[in-house]
Amino acid sequence: MADFISHSEEETIAWAEAYAKSLRPGDVVLLEGEMGAGKTALTKGIARGLGIREEVTSPTYAYMNSYGDKLFHYDCYRISSEAQAESLGLCDYFDAGGVCVIEWSENIRGLLPAGCKKITLVKTGEKERVIRI
Ligand SMILES: Nc1ncnc2c1ncn2[C@@H]1O[C@H](COP(=O)(O)OP(=O)(O)OP(=O)(O)O)[C@@H](O)[C@H]1O
Ligand SMILES: [Mg+2]
């Protein structure tokens, strides 16, 4: 699929809202991209597309925020080992019947289920992002 060029946070959210329509319960979506690339912004759009009205905020300190049983939003930036992730029970939600969206998934690479989807965000300007699936 062709790259999508986003020119604002709002455009990224709108793209993700439409993308969310392709998701099914049990899907695990890995968000790749540097700090500030827009992974959390994109998750706001996925939540909107899944019909979630709650505000999505970065789960940096909580590691994972859940929105009912529809969306589990991970930020694994501060996970220091896969053993830590396992002992926190973070893997328990992969098959909990919702969509999992994971930032910094490289920190739990060995724990990820097969068949994850991937979205890459590339920061190409202050407000420009290339979004690739
Ligand atoms: N086109 C764009 N799409 C998304 N965010 C944008 C865009 N242009 C500017 N921004 C800004 O970039 C920032 C993206 O922050 P966000 O928290 O989503 O990044 P992140 O990838 O989740 O970073 P982190 O790895 O630190 O969690 C926000 O301040 C947002 O307003
Ligand atoms: Mg983030």
Total count of helical runs of at least 4 residues: 3
Strand order of the largest sheet: 1-7-6-2-5-4-3
CATH class division: Alpha Beta
Number of strands: 7
Summed over residues and divided by their number, the pLDDT gives a mean of 96
The CATH architecture classification is 3-Layer(aba) Sandwich
- SSE order, as H and E? EHEHEEHEEE
Looking at the chains present, what oligomeric state does this protein adopt? single chain
Low-pLDDT regions: none
Silhouette: globular
CATH homologous superfamily label: P-loop containing nucleotide triphosphate hydrolases
> What Rg is obtained from the alpha carbons, in whole angstroms?
14 Å
**Total domain units:** 1
Distance between the termini: 7 Å
Small molecules bound: adenosine-5'-triphosphate, magnesium ion
Task: Give the helix/strand class.
Answer: alpha/beta
The largest sheet is: 7 strands, mixed
Please characterize this protein's 3D structure:
- The protein is of the alpha/beta class and 133 residues long.
- It has a single domain (4-132), classed as Rossmann fold (3-Layer(aba) Sandwich).
- Helix content is 21%, strand content 25%.
- It has three helices and seven strands.
- It has helices at residues 9-19, 39-49, 82-87, and strands at residues 4-6, 28-32, 64-67, 71-75, 99-103, 117-123, 129-132.
- A seven-stranded mixed beta sheet has the order 1-7-6-2-5-4-3, with helices on one face.
- α3 (82-87) links the parallel β4 (71-75) and β5 (99-103).
- α1 packs across α2 (39-49).
- The longest helix has 11 residues, at 9-19.
- The N and C termini lie close together (7 Å).
- 35% of the residues are buried.
- The mean pLDDT is 96.
- The chain binds adenosine-5'-triphosphate (ATP) and magnesium ion.
- Adenosine-5'-triphosphate binds at residues 6-9, 11-12, 33, 35-41, 58, 75, 103, 127, 129.
